[in-house]
Amino acid sequence: MTHSITGAARLTGLLGWPVAHSLSPALHHYWLDKHNLDGLYAPLAVAPDRVDQAVSGLRALGFTGANVTVPHKQAVIPHVDRCDDVAQRLGAVNTIIVHKDGSLTGRNTDTYGFQQSLMTKAGAQIKQQVDENQSVSLIGAGGAARAVLDAVLTLGYQRVQLSNRTPDKAKELAAHFQQFYPQVTITVVPWDHRQDMVADCGLLVNTSSLGMHGMPPLDVDLSPMAPNRVVADIVYVPLITPLLAAAQEQGHSAVDGLDMLLYQAQAAFAAWHGVTPVIDHALRGFMLDLLRDGP
Ligand code: ATR
Question: Do 238 and 215 form a contact (C-beta atoms < 8 A)?
Fold first, then answer.
C-alpha cells in the first residue's frame, strides 16, 4: 500500500516500549488511505525514563495526538492536562488528544472497544442478558481486565464474578470498581474454583494471556453453561482460541479479540481526524493477513 503525505499532514503515533510488533501503524494507514486523509501514524519507541519528554514532545512537534501502549498507559497520566472519565476509572490512558491551545487530554478507548466488539457480534443477546440480570464471569485481572470490567458495568450488568491466578490483583480490581459502581456486586472467586463460575453466567470473558499463541489454553469446561450464552476472548493470536473453539462447538456466540483492537483504534482515529473510519470485512481480512504474516 502506498501512502503519501504533504507538509500539512496530521501527525499521530504510538508511544510504547517496545512498539516494533504493533499492528496499529498499518491499521491507521489503511484508514488514512481509505478515507483519503493527509496524515501519518508513527511508531514511537519511548524508554520508560523519557515518557515525560515524549508527551511534551507531542505538543512541541505539533502532533494531533497519540496512542499509548504498555508499559506507559499509567505513566503518561501526570503529564497530560486532564483525563476523561473512562481514563480516570481505568487509571490508564491509551489515547492522547493534543488540542489547538496545546493542552493534552488523556482518554481511554479500550472500554468502548470491548463494548463495541460485544455489541457487534452479540448485541441482542447482551441486551437480553442485561434485562434478565444475568451475570458476567471474568478471568484475569491485568490491564485488559480493567477495560472489560468497565465495559460490562457500563453496559448495565449488575453481577460480576472475577477470578485471577494472583488473588490479590482480583481483590484490588473488584474494590477499585466497586467505588465507581457501588450498586453492583463484584465477587472474587478463588483461582482453583474458576470452573464454578461457568454454569451460572450469561457472558464469560477471558482477559488473561491463557490461550494466546505459546501459552497453555484456559482450562475451563464450558459444558455446564446454559445454551446460547456469549463467550469472549481478548486474545487475538490465534483469533479462535481453544476457549472460543469450544464455545462455537457448543453453539454459544463467540467474540474474538480482533474487534476490540479495531474499535479502540476507531475511536482514537475519529477523535484525531473527525472521521469515523470503516470497520468491515475487507479490513478484517487485511488485519488477519497481518496477524498471519506480521506487520
Ligand atoms: P493485559 O494488559 O493483557 O491484561 P497483564 O496486565 O500482564 O496483560 O495481565 C495478564 C493477565 O493474564 C493477568 O491476569 C495474569 O494473571 P496474574 O495476575 O496472576 O499474573 C494472567 N496470566 C498470565 N499468565 C497466566 C498463567 N500462566 N496462568 C494464569 N493466568 C495467567
Answer: no
